[in-house]
Amino acid sequence: MSNVTAQRQETTQVSRVDRFVGAIREHWFSYLLFLPTLLYLVFLLWIPFFRGVWMSFHEWSSGGANPTWVGLENYIYLLNWDPFYTSLQATLGFGIATFFQLVLAVAAASLVANLDKFKAIVSTGLIIPYTMPPVVTGTIWLYLLDPNYGPIFGYLMEWGVISEPIYWSSSGLPALSVVSGVLMWTFWPFMFLIILASRESIPDEYYETAQVYGSNRVQTFLRITLPQLKSAILVALSIRLVWNLAKVSQAFQLTQGGPGYETSVLGVLLYRFAYSDGQFGMGFAVGMFLLAVTIGFVALFIREFEKARKEGSTA
Questions:
Q1: Pick from 124, 112, 84: which is nearest to 293 by CA?
Q2: Rounded distance, CA 267 to CA 251, Å?
Q3: Which single residue of 20, 161, 195, 238 has CA 20 to 30 Å from 84?
């Protein structure tokens, strides 16, 4: 009996090998085209990622000499370190700023879609901030909002709105508001482009029918435009949210994470540990927390996206 079972298992394994070889021979060109992407993912993403996970369990200096295994001590240190929670709050603030980008993008897309003339010119003008490198936009806003030399505070004092300049970079909430505002100004056009493309695909017949039945603008937006844009909104919001959570350049350029750790989002905190303090193990431990926060948000949006897709397929 045992010989029969072993023979059957061997036959099954041989048939699986044959099917695998047959699939390779039949689709060899597709696999060949996929090979560069696979090599890129393995050598430039997954190997560095797992090495980073390994390093997070070590006391690992910038030179990489004689790393010491410390187990979960890096994680425990962060969980008992007050600035880590300040950094986490700043990161969540960055995430919330994404929703303001969404509101701005939906409003702009709705307005542009209804334009009869100059639609291309207006759209091009709106996406200009997104075409600039973040370091350029950061430099522009650093100058504009400089308390001593920037024109914005100069005009506000000249018009009597404020009596003295605001040194926003020396206080937590104003500094975080400025960094989030600059981030929003730079990247909201990305969401605008996705939502505008989806808005343009809504048939005019829907709006003509709503007009016949006497719907006002608010009712038309809530019952036609918004449901039709739901999938585009989820895609744009999830992508933009992930990118915002990992942003380092503008926050570091505008405030260098200060004052204290008030604007040190997790990406900046990781950078400060790894490249300012030379503690790569601690830096990668911060990265693991950032990954967990990002996965949490992405899982939420994927669930909503699947829900919207099923509703669309059954409608």
A1: 84
A2: 9
A3: 238
Q: How far apart are CA 149 and CA 170, in angstroms?
A: 16
pLDDT tens digits for 122-178?
Answer: 988 999 988 888 888 888 999 999 988 889 988 999 898 888 888 988 888 889 889
Q: Does residue 7 have a pLDDT over 90? A: no
What does the block give as tokens for 50? 């797992």
Cβ-Cβ contacts under 8 Å for 311 (sequence gap 6 or more) = none
d(CA 284, CA 52): 6
Residue pair 183/91 in contact (Cβ under 8 Å)? The answer is no
215-242 burial code (b ≥16 CB/10 A, e <16)? beeeebeeebbeebbbbbbbbbbbbbbb
* Residue 266 near residue 293 (C-beta atoms within 8 A): yes
The pTM of this model reads 0.79
- Other CB atoms within a 10 A radius of the CB of residue 178 amount to 19
Query: If you count them, how many residues does the chain have?
Result: 315
- Read off the pLDDT of each residue in 81-103 and give the average, rounded to a whole number: 89
Report the mean per-residue pLDDT for the chain.
86
Higher pLDDT, 14 or 113: 113
